[in-house]
Amino acid sequence: MDKIFLKFIGYxxxxxxxxxxxxxxxxxxxxxxxxxxxxxxxxAFSNRRGTANKTAGKSKWGNIGLVIMGCLIGSVLFLFNxxxxxxxxxxxxxxxxxxxxxxxxxxxxxxxxxxQFIIAPRPxxxxxxxxxxxxxxxxxxxxxxxxxxxxxxxxxxFAEGLWAVPLFFIQxxxxxxxxxxxxxxxxxxxxxSVSAQRFKDIxxxxxxxxxxxxxxxxxxxxRLISISVLQHANVLAHKWVYLLPPVWIASLNEIxxxxxxxxxxxxxxxxxxxxxxxxxIWFVAKVLAPGFNRKLAMVATSDGSSNSVANKQYKTDFRxxxxxxxxxxxxxxxxxxxxxxxxxxxxxxKMKAFPAFAYVPIYFLYFALNGTGQTLADKYERLQNxxxxxxxxxxxxxxxxxxxxxxxxxxxxxSAWVYYALPVDKPGKILAGMYKAIIVLYFFPYCxxxxxxxxxxxxxxxxxxxxLAFTISxxxxxxxxxxxxxxxxxxxxxxxxxxxxxxxSLLIMSFxxxxxxxxxxxxxxxxxxxxxxxxxxxxxxLMFHHYKQQSWDDIEMADM
Length: 560
What we know:
Blueprint: H1 2-10, H2 13-18, H3 23-39, H4 51-74, H5 83-105, H6 107-110, H7 126-160, H8 164-193, H9 196-224, H10 227-231, H11 245-257, H12 264-288, H13 292-301, H14 318-326, H15 330-345, H16 347-353, H17 355-368, H18 376-384, H19 389-395, H20 397-406, E1 409-410, H21 417-421, H22 428-458, H23 463-483, E2 492-493, H24 502-521, H25 526-548, H26 552-558
Parallel strand pairs: 1-2
Helix pairs in contact: 1-3, 3-7, 4-7, 5-7, 5-8, 5-9, 5-11, 7-8, 7-12, 8-11, 8-12, 9-13, 9-16, 9-17, 11-12, 14-15, 15-22, 20-22, 20-23, 22-23, 23-24, 23-25
């Protein structure tokens, strides 16, 4: 496969040479990179027998998952009454998944700085260096695309005839090239227009946004849109749709297999779909690639702080004032500030924790909008007359759980030696400050926003339920912190996974579920809800006091 791809790239040599790319160097760079990828062991840094076989097994199951996903996407080809609309929707989903794969898995390949020490000192110009990255990513994503598009290639033969099969294969390649090109165009433009620090931040937010969008589409679209409505949908009725690349790809099928019903506009779009990737490669090589090495070096040296703090005088900000107010104890105060400031700066933490904020309303709408044969207005009225807001409040524990499970991990965990070097007799005070920071920085503001929405929709009589559920949720967080997550802020390596505690996790989850159902049963006794708030707050305070007494032995035992 690699030889076939390298030979195929050779057909673009005249175009690349005119753009200033040394095609001989490009070929050798790609050949060596692909050879290294084949030779690289799949289970790196592993000394256990059979680990490589397990990794290969995971890869096999991953390939099967891609084929299954391809079957699900391919079913779209039979859904619409208009074949071109079906292909537009198919390639829209296909390109979104390819873009998501690129952003989540191949961003590190594009901005990998290790080649700076091998290729950059050689007489290799920026254009050749940048295009080698682009081609390397394209080859890998094409392998994924062919595996995911294989079911669609087979299905289109049943939908439109045998001649559609080779044409659909070309369309898959076209969609893959467009996906790689568009994502890389965005990356190259960002690298040229913003600072290295800002570039890393934007990429992180892109990854978070894409994961949320895919999650929301998967859960909410089937609830909001009926299949019978989709069958008669005609997205081509809107003129702005013709600006989308999936329409250009679908136009190729329309002009070659259904020329009698194709218009001049469809023919122009089909030509655009073929010309745009070729012109895009030339544009990347000729315009965006110069200066790529210099920008890459800036990204490599950007570590999250653009200015040196060695000679800067420390100034008290609003976070310090809040920490002094809520955590007067010196150790607790330190844990509060460390957690708040590092959580705001660490990309790894934000990428793992932030999606949970969107998962809560998505899960809620998924369960709340359950039901067929109803309009959205009917579902909203039914929701307003129900007590489903209890579910929404308790779902916020997903946010608390996600933050607690990631707040102890860091790619720069070696800096945590300072915890052990200082004369700290009770690390529980640092943990207490960490927990307060999580509640104040993330959990309380998030619950406040949801509480305002609940009061606006269900009325002020829900205030006592909100207070009780919020207090019980903090108890759930304390249980998670005591039994599942015992680690000082950003002190553990990300690659090390905690020992499985399935039974403990199920017991804690069963606790919050049982409390939630009990709360749902008691919502009609308003006075009782107000009364229960007092013992709930007392229990939360007692657990927090116990958490504050954690010793070094407790933390070390948790890591065993």
